[in-house]
Amino acid sequence: MPFIGVLPEREFLFRPSPRRDVGVNDAAAWRLNPAHRRVYDKLSLALDAGLRAAPCGVDPRDCGIASDAQVFVKPIVNLAGMAVRARAVPADAVPSEPGSFWCERLEGPHTSSDCLVQDGRAVWFAHTRGSDEKDRERPIYWEVGAALPDLEPVIADWIARNLKGYSGLCNLEMIGGRPIEVHLRGSNGFFDFYGPDFIPAWVALVDGVDFAPPPPIPGGFVISVFGEVAIEEAQCKAAAEQGVRVDLDTRTADRSAILRCSDKDAGLDVLRRLTGRTPA
Predict the structure, then answer these.
(1) Whole-angstrom Cα distance, residue 223 to residue 70?
(2) According to the lineage, what is the superkingdom (predicted)?
(3) How many separate domains does the chain show?
(4) What is the pTM for the complete model shown?
């Protein structure tokens, strides 16, 4: 059986294939995992984390949040891009938006952790850390392979409580060590930097054959070119000479390309030449 939901331009990464259907996008993962799909409910996730949160229509000020405090507003469930329509607004300006919720705004490092899970137990981690500089709450770049050992007990505990009986890959996105999104798939855009042993280990795990966790990932950097930016072939070739791969993005709103590289400075130099932006 194939991986379900692989983009054509990413098929080269997904070898070998599993014997059973495995979702690699949220729509497929939700459909294929009925016993655990509740994790896509971001309002329940926030409340479970002890955050002040409620559906839009419940006034944040009635929950003890100051009028001028910023809160996140986003859809309760959104399988077509989990961060779509997410934004920060003052508590006294939260819209009555059907299907959305508000949550107290979190501060701290923005992280994304992929975990191989065996029967509800986390057995392997791959961490990625977002840059401090943001574009509308979105990190400009991600450091794939970041060492975040302090998060692992927190993530392992969450998985043990919420994914009993699940075997496969999952992802927890966190801010300041508090979960903001959970996916029953991995961070597919980062797999280029996971090394050759990752996909075979994942396939062995879901197929129920002899499984050994893969080694720590080699790592790298994934940089977003946000906005409408015209990128010419000559610019892609020049970037390649610096060890930076430019992948044009025709699927994500307000993102023109993704840069992938092992050298952060080289990647940020390409970003500067493409956009004029120089992140810290």
Answers:
(1) 27
(2) Bacteria
(3) 3
(4) 0.93
Q: Is residue 46 part of a domain?
A: no
Residue 123 tokens, joined? 């057995």
Handedness of CA 194, 190, 146, 148 (dihedral sign): negative
Rounded distance, CA 37 to CA 184, Å?
8
Instruction: Show Cβ contacts of residue 89 under 8 Å, excluding neighbours closer than 6 positions.
Output: 70, 71, 73, 95, 102
CA–centroid distance for 84 within its chain: 12
Domain match, 239 and 271 both: yes
Helix (H) or strand (E) holding 155: helix 151-162
Residue 96 covered by a domain: yes
Q: How many residues does the chain have?
A: 280
Q: 182 and 129 share a domain? A: yes
Residues 248 and 173 in one domain: no
Q: In the chain, what percentage of residues exceed pLDDT 90?
A: 90
Residues 118 and 73 in one domain: no
d(CA 142, CA 111): 9
Residue 215 lies inside a defined structural domain of this protein: no
Are 190 and 142 within one domain?
Answer: yes
Contact call for residues 180 and 158 (beta carbons, < 8 A): no
| pLDDT tens, position by position, 129-188 | 999 998 877 899 999 999 999 999 999 999 999 999 999 999 999 999 999 999 999 999
> Angle at CA 178, nearest 5°, toward 176 and 179?
125
Report the C-alpha gap between 236 and 252 in whole angstroms.
19
Range of the domain at 198: 3-40+108-207
Tokens of 19: 């014997």
